[in-house]
């Protein structure tokens, strides 16, 4: 039987022992519910000879096989635990690593999403006195945009659903209603700044003082800004830049506090493991694949779902007082790992280099298979005025940072921009895997 969450926001400040005990009580409920209602997990338990009643601790989870993206794609409907009449919203994943997965949400799941974003916005220091400007889409089957809107309502913030793009409309909204914070993809902030500078808007004296950013890394695992984050901070030092990390399958987020030392786990809503290629836990200081078990999800709960995202994790007490696990920025997606001339690379490290090159307007990264059967890496760069020395400069910068240099192709910024924003995508696409 499904048991709804009784909010307990103070649990994140309790001792690690109390947090673990709380999570394990919720975990037992989640396991029992999946064993009763999920056709997929009933098969998993039966085929592996596992009694669900024996899975009662976080360590016990290691007795279960992991759930993969391929499992979700191949058996999508078998994960749904409610009747069609109980579903109030259907969303899909972005399909970054293949066919999008449909996720069914009940009325309770939407309330849970709102509570998650309420906690997330509180972690980032938002209050009912803030006015949230939503610079992301609420349509296109995108779960997060709706969650942000509902979370702002739950916190008591007013919000404005401007959507993505259109810098002129964004600035007009800030002027009209005095927006103080925004949900945004960080590279768009550079377009806002550029528009303001070209149109005489003194953005540094605007009411806008905080952004919670998605989709692109602002900070490296050590806490320093990436090239993108540094560009924004240099232009607009008054703007506080927070990061929130989530996925549709998680139905939960990890968000920076004001000490910017990793995204905080919400222990009421999710159990997280960090696993190696053999599905064994990795210690702090080693990268591991973020693997989640939902707590309190009614429509489509997941157990030991491997997200594909590689992160570091931290367990020391944060200066904000929370004692929850924290995640670093994403090092990369496991399915997007590149082995190029003996060097292992992830796309975010390449983006960080390209974002710091003065003449690069925009870019996409392509990886393909060459005649030898190994990875071939190409960066397609948008420049206003192609110069012969640019190729050498780009290659030298890459060699100094990651020891290898990609192939370099120049295109017009408009042509590259069209590839970054394909018509069917909800997010900018910078990586194309042609292997």
Please give a structural write-up.
This protein has 435 residues and is α/β, with parallel strands linked by helices. The chain folds into two domains: 1-331, 3-Layer(aba) Sandwich (Rossmann fold), CATH 3.40.50.12780; 337-433, GMP Synthetase, Chain A, domain 3 (2-Layer Sandwich). Helices cover 30% and strands 22% of the residues. It contains eleven helices and 21 strands. The strands form six sheets. It has a six-stranded mixed sheet, sandwiched between helices. Strand 7 (240-247) and strand 8 form a beta hairpin. The longest helix has 22 residues, at 16-37. The protein starts with 15 loop residues before the first helix and ends with a strand. The model has no long low-confidence stretch (mean pLDDT 94).
The CATH superfamily of the largest domain is identified as ANL, N-terminal domain
Radius of gyration: 22 Å
Proportion of β residues? Answer: 15-25%
Distance between the termini: 45 Å
Q: What best-fitting shape do the alpha-carbon axes yield?
A: globular
CATH topology call of the largest domain? Rossmann fold
Arithmetic mean pLDDT: 94
What is the CATH C-level name of the largest domain? Answer: Alpha Beta
Low-confidence stretches: none
For the largest beta-sheet, the strand count, sense and barrel status come to: 6 strands, mixed
Under the CATH scheme, which architecture of the largest domain would be assigned? 3-Layer(aba) Sandwich
Percent in helix: 25-40%
- Count of domains: 2
């Amino acid at each position: 039987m499904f048991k709804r969450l009784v909010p307990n926001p103070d649990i994140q400040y309790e001792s690690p022992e109390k947090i673990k005990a709380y999570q394990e009580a919720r975990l037992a409920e989640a396991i029992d519910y999946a064993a009763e209602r999920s056709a997929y997990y009933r098969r998993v338990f039966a085929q592996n000879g596992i009694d669900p009643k024996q899975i009662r601790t976080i360590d016990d989870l290691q007795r279960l096989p992991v759930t993969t993206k391929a499992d979700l794609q191949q058996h999508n409907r078998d994960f749904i635990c409610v009747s069609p009449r109980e579903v109030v919203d259907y969303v899909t994943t972005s399909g970054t690593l293949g066919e999008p997965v449909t996720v069914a949400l009940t009325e309770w799941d939407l309330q849970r999403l709102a509570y998650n974003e309420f906690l997330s916005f509180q972690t980032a220091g938002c209050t009912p006195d803030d006015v949230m400007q939503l610079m992301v889409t609420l349509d296109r089957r995108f779960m997060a945009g709706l969650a942000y809107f509902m979370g702002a309502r739950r916190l008591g913030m007013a919000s404005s659903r401007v959507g993505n793009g259109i810098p002129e409309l964004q600035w007009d909204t800030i002027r009209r209603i005095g927006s103080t914070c925004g949900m945004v993809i960080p590279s768009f902030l550079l377009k806002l700044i550029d528009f303001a500078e070209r149109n005489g808007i003194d953005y540094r004296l605007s009411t806008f003082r905080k952004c919670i950013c998605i989709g692109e890394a602002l900070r490296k695992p050590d806490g320093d800004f990436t090239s993108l984050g540094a560009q924004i901070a240099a232009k607009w030092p008054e703007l506080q830049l927070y990061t929130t990390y989530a996925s549709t399958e998680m139905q939960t987020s990890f968000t920076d506090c004001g000490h910017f030392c990793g995204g905080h786990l919400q222990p009421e809503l999710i159990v997280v493991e960090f696993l190696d290629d053999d599905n064994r836990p990795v210690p702090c200081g080693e990268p591991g694949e973020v693997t989640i078990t939902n707590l309190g999800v009614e429509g489509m709960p997941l157990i030991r779902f491997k997200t594909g995202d590689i992160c570091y994790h931290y367990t020391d007490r944060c200066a904000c007082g929370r004692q929850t696990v924290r995640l670093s920025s994403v090092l990369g997606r496991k399915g997007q790992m590149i082995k190029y001339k003996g060097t292992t690379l992830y796309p975010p490290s390449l983006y960080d280099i390209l974002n710091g090159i003065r003449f690069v307007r925009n870019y996409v990264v392509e990886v393909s298979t060459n005649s030898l059967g190994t990875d071939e890496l190409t960066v397609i760069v948008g420049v206003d005025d192609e110069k012969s020395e640019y190729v050498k400069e780009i290659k030298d910068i890459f060699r100094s940072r990651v020891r290898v240099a990609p192939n370099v192709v120049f295109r017009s910024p408009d042509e590259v921009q069209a590839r970054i924003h394909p018509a069917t995508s909800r997010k900018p696409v910078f990586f194309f895997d042609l292997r």
